[in-house]
Design brief:
By secondary structure, the protein is α/β, with parallel strands linked by helices. It has helices at 19-28, 70-88, 102-113, 138-160, 168-179, 191-196, 200-206, 258-272, 318-329, 345-351, 363-376, 387-394, 411-420, 456-465, and strands at 10-12, 37-41, 49-53, 62-63, 68-69, 93-96, 128-131, 185-189, 214-221, 227-232, 234-238, 278-288, 299-302, 308-311, 336-341, 356-360, 380-382, 401-402, 428-433. The radius of gyration is 23 Å and the shape is globular.
Length: 469
């Protein structure tokens, strides 16, 4: 069989694939470990190469300590391991069995397949992926898994793109190219629009760059009585401004728009799945650079709601642009507002790459978000939003809010308390600090190296669940 016609079959380590393989297992004396992959040639006349992967113990279900559905995670890990094994062998056309969960199998293999090759002169050919012998309802589950994984891969591509090729203007244009064909309304707002709205926080961050700011507004109208607002931080490059960052790893700050990328991926997923929800996405897009025009430490600006802000650290810029976006969200009379941002390095210290940190004024909403993360394997973890943190950012004699706050420690909590000052009254709100899961390191066994696009699938699951509950 030629290489072009090669096929891959993944199968459970615990079932009888063929008498030869069962005999092999018997002689080996044990099962294949979870996530372990073995490849065989010539076992089957139709499939030239076969990858066999271990799933571990069956029927483990939801783990309250790990806060994850272990069976779904096992399938994702197995599908990714098998895909990588065959892809690395040069197999061009890969077919996979469902492992009893076609959606998770599609997610694992598709997430593992992502490579950022846009700038390579010689690109490695990608393998095609399909489901073998689907059972009843498995085709729909498979397609849903592909859509969610492709949405996350879209976020990864946006975040991985170098900053000179992903300016605020280019980001807004790319979002339009992707989302307009899906029926979304794209509204890129310019600097004069922001000035009329008195968005002092948003405009202050953009002052240091020659690139014009863009306040991107996207409407997805899938139906329903309520409107939900998603806000994504869109700093397309963050040098820290006058409070400049160390040069080491500064290139990673091309992905400081990871929150905005996740929001675009989420809207892509919702629109592709035709979710019956109405969502407004707000992505304030800027570069944060030092220059003679840049905002200076100690400068005081005003946000859209009239509150004065002392910018003590210009590298705490994400909260400034999000403040105006939160104020603006009031115009849509939202049922709830969710913002997501690579906001604080302190979140990476707290959680590593294991989860996204969450602050909220609604335990009910958090419970739904946590459940969504348990199903997708991209977990959430709740942090306190106590008055003590609000005191640390508001008790100043000369202005309303300080963008860093008093005292040492609690950086993520103080940042969330800062944002709370700009949330519309009587609106349920979730703040997701995803700095810890941005990348570029490999943060899950089924994710390849590079920017990670997390937690896009969890956001899709969470928002879509609003129309199913």
């Amino acid at each position: 069989m030629s290489e072009e016609l090669s096929r891959l079959l993944f199968c459970f380590s615990c079932c009888c694939f063929c008498s030869f393989f069962c005999f092999f297992l018997y002689r080996a004396g044990n099962q294949i470990k979870e996530g372990k992959c073995l490849t065989f040639w010539g076992l089957d006349p139709e499939y030239e190469c076969v990858a066999v992967v271990g799933l571990g113990k069956s029927c483990r279900g939801f783990d309250e300590i790990e806060v994850v559905d272990q069976d779904k995670e096992a399938v994702r890990i197995a599908a990714a391991a098998g895909y990588n094994a065959l892809h690395n062998l040069g197999v061009k056309n890969i077919v996979i069995e469902s492992f009893g969960d076609a959606e998770s199998a599609a997610e694992g293999a598709t997430l593992a397949s992502w490579r950022y090759q846009d700038l390579k002169s010689k690109k490695k050919e990608e393998s095609t992926l399909d489901l073998i012998d689907p059972q009843r309802n498995e085709c729909a589950q498979w397609e849903e898994g592909l859509t969610k994984a492709n949405a996350q891969n879209l976020a990864r591509t946006l975040a991985e793109t170098p900053a000179n090729l992903m300016t605020p203007t280019i980001f807004a244009s790319k979002a339009g190219e992707i989302l307009k064909p899906l029926g979304c309304e794209i509204c890129p707002r310019d600097k004069s629009w922001a000035e009329n709205k008195k968005m002092g926080g948003f405009l202050s961050v953009a002052k240091g760059s020659v690139e014009p700011p863009v306040f991107l507004e996207v409407h997805y109208k899938g139906g329903g009585d309520n409107t939900f607002v998603l806000i994504g931080k869109g700093v397309t490059f963050d040098a820290g401004g006058i409070s400049i960052k160390p040069s080491a790893n500064m290139a990673d700050m091309r992905a400081d728009m990871g929150g905005g990328a996740a929001v675009v991926g989420t809207i892509f997923g919702l629109a592709s799945l035709k979710a019956k929800v109405n969502v407004v996405a707000l992505i304030p897009l800027v570069e944060n650079l030092p220059s003679g025009n840049a905002v200076k430490p100690g400068d005081v600006i005003k946000a859209m709601n009239g509150k004065s802000i002392c910018v003590d650290n210009t590298d705490a810029e994400g909260r400034l642009i999000l403040a105006d976006a939160l104020c603006y969200s009031k115009e849509f009379d939202p049922a709830w507002v969710l913002d997501i941002a690579t906001l604080t390095g302190a979140m990476t210290v707290a959680l590593g790459d294991a989860a996204t940190g969450v602050f909220t004024n609604s335990n009910e909403l958090y419970g739904k978000l946590e459940q969504a993360g348990a199903r997708t394997g991209d977990r959430m973890w709740k942090f306190p939003l106590w008055k003590r943190y609000s005191e640390l950012v508001t008790e100043y004699p000369f202005y309303d809010v300080h963008n860093v706050g008093k005292g040492k420690g609690g950086g993520s909590c103080k940042a969330a308390a800062f944002l709370r000052e700009f949330v519309p009254e009587k609106v349920d709100w979730l703040h997701l600090d995803m700095a810890s899961v941005m990348g570029p390191g490999k943060s899950a066994k089924y994710l390849s190296e590079g920017m990670q696009g997390r937690p896009t699938r969890t956001l899709i699951e969470f928002v879509r669940g609003q129309c199913l509950s």
